[in-house]
Amino acid sequence: MLTSARIKEAALAAGADACGIAPVSRMEGAPDEMNPMLLFPGVKSMIGFVFRIPRGVQRGIEEGTQFYQYPSMAYGGINEIFAPAVLYSVGKVIEDEGYEAFVYRNTGARGSVSDMDGSAGNTLSPEEQIEVNENAKTSTAHHRNVQFTRPTRPENTAPDLQFHFRLAAVACGLGEIGWSKMLLTPQFGPLQRVAFLFTDAELEYDEMYSGPPLCRKCGACVRECPGGCIPSIQSGKKVTVDLAGKICEWGDIDMWRCYAFYTHAGRYYNPFVPKEVFDKNEDGALDLLEGVTDVANEQEIMKVYTALQKYFPSWVGYNMAKCGGCIRACVHMLEHKGGCMEGRFETPLRTRKKAWRLDR
Ligand code: SF4
Ligand code: SF4
């Protein structure tokens, strides 16, 4: 017999670090193109899986000594290898009982609307960035590669449907969204990625998290973002979502700005780019990173990527994140000031007083 307990047992045995189950109806009210209730008729349950990011994967960036492990292990490794393997394994348990297992790994910016700015068809994907750069002459100006998508039946939304992963994780009772928009869980703070599975089986459902707030509203993520992408808590610039009665709030992050800074980090936090490149700022390509313009949009991001990508090429199919500033700041704060990361490690993530910053 298929039960929630059996599914969770299979998930943990296959390698997930946590698993929560919700009625998919908790996502009611999401825009159609982001509503998993529309994935297939008869979908009833949403199963969320947490995959921890080992804290040591961030150590190299924290020390400024090794930058490759975070994007390759915590993005590429989890999204492409660990999570799909668990989805596959749990899916078989469900289908052996005669129910469907609609697996949904992290697809990264493949929806019919942009997860950056909501614009239709604009799915510039981190995974496609290299291709865009190399073939820029033949790409459309905005690389809107699903611009012609259309519903396949009158009652369908245009493919591909991509839902809000972090809200879905909250719906599954796995945690809460912090001010930095990261998912925080009681077990791992901000250190995880998630994947989902949808089924027509009716299951026993987890309550949404209702313990002490996981976000301390300390503002460390705001202070340590190299791009100033996260608004201060005092500014009141926030996004509020009523998720089946649970109010979720986070800072209204400038997502395009983050897109530029999390990969390229800027003059003081990217040791791979010579100082002279920032000084020269050829053709204004680095205006966004250098603070010459406040305008953060796809055009500015493409300029930054085209100018800097060669200084740290990607071989993992993902943007080569050099930042993680908000994550590391959050871990540091939750270890030092009390919170879900307190006491988990023998030594804290940050053993020095301050995070490093290049002097140039
Ligand atoms: S990932 Fe980096 S650039 Fe983006 S919000 Fe976090 S600290 Fe800022
Ligand atoms: S750093 Fe502080 S404010 Fe930011 S998400 Fe973490 S706990 Fe919340």
Task: Please characterize this protein's 3D structure.
It is a single chain. The chain has 360 residues and is an alpha+beta fold. Among the domains are: 155 residues, NADH Oxidase, CATH 3.40.109; 39 residues, no CATH class. A hairpin with a 2-residue loop joins strand 7 and strand 8. One iron/sulfur cluster (SF4) binds next to helix 7 and helix 11.
What would you report as the Rg, rounded to the nearest angstrom?
21 Å
Strand tally: 8
Strand content: 5-15%
Please mark out the parts with pLDDT under 50 across 5 or more consecutive residues, or reply none: 139-143
In CATH, the topology of the domain at 4-107 and 162-212 is named NADH Oxidase
